[in-house]
Amino acid sequence: MSNMAFSDIKLEHKQQALADLRSVKELFASRGWFAGTSGNLSVRVGDYTPDEFYFAITASGKDKTVHTPEDYLFVDKDGKACEATSLKPSAETLIHNEIYRLTGAGAIFHVHSVYSAVMSEWFWERRAVPVDGVELIKGLNIWDEEAHIDIPIVSNFAEIPRIVPEVTERLDKRIPGIILRKHGIYAWGANAFEAKRHIEAFEFLFEYVYRWEMLNGRK
């Protein structure tokens, strides 16, 4: 087991994580995926074991359409700040903690889009959004011809700790994403580039499924 301390992580690696977050935040904000101060982004830094890891995450309650010195902070596997700060991590940091613990991902991005929220309610009874044979499934690194996937949906409770056990139970290692009901998608990847690709693929798939259901008059 690693005994890595936060202070052992190289400064340039921390700065790269913040640069990645700034770039992705600006891009996603331009797409309208951070209504109000919603959404959260994180990038892991340093070595990883399921019992010890660190990541940079967006601070709670910040306007994600602008850049300030108070946009991010570093936290540990329990979501506790690694440095002296008055900033609070996103309220949903515990979900990031659990996804990192289960997957060893390098980055996790969470956005609120209309299509993901609508589809999560439309398919709530089956607890997954089904997608059949759409090309952009390959954007999730799933290469089967005419692949079928089911994107898991979990409950959205006001108390975040109540959500975590469902994430633990429903997370599918093959599908790099999970939806909170009437809320939004969490997507992850080995690094910021891959997590960005995955969230873009999911957003395309949600819109595709929505439009397909509309065309077919599903009720």
Would you write up a description of this structure?
With 219 residues, this protein is α+β, with helices and mostly antiparallel strands. The protein is 34% helix and 22% strand. The protein has an eight-stranded mixed sheet with strand order 3-2-1-4-8-7-6-5, sandwiched between helices. Helix 3 (114-122) packs across helix 5 (192-215). The relative contact order is 0.14. The model has no long low-confidence stretch (mean pLDDT 93).
Question: How is the topology of this model organized?
Answer:
Blueprint: H1 11-30, E1 40-49, E2 52-58, E3 72-76, H2 93-103, E4 107-111, H3 114-122, E5 128-132, E6 148-154, H4 160-170, E7 177-180, E8 184-189, H5 192-215
Parallel strand pairs: 6-7
Antiparallel strand pairs: 1-2, 1-4, 2-3, 4-8, 5-6, 7-8
Cofactor: Zn(2+)
Catalytic activity: 5-(methylsulfanyl)-D-ribulose 1-phosphate = 5-methylsulfanyl-2,3-dioxopentyl phosphate + H2O
Pfam families: Aldolase_II
The number of helical segments is 5
Tell me, what's the shape?
A: globular
The rounded distance between the terminal residues' Cα atoms is 52 Å
- The topology string of helices and strands comes to HEEEHEHEEHEEH
Q: Please tell me the overall pLDDT.
A: 93
Q: What structural category characterises the helix and strand content?
A: alpha+beta
Fraction in helix: 25-40%
Main sheet summary:
8 strands, mixed
Query: Strand order across the biggest sheet?
Result: 3-2-1-4-8-7-6-5
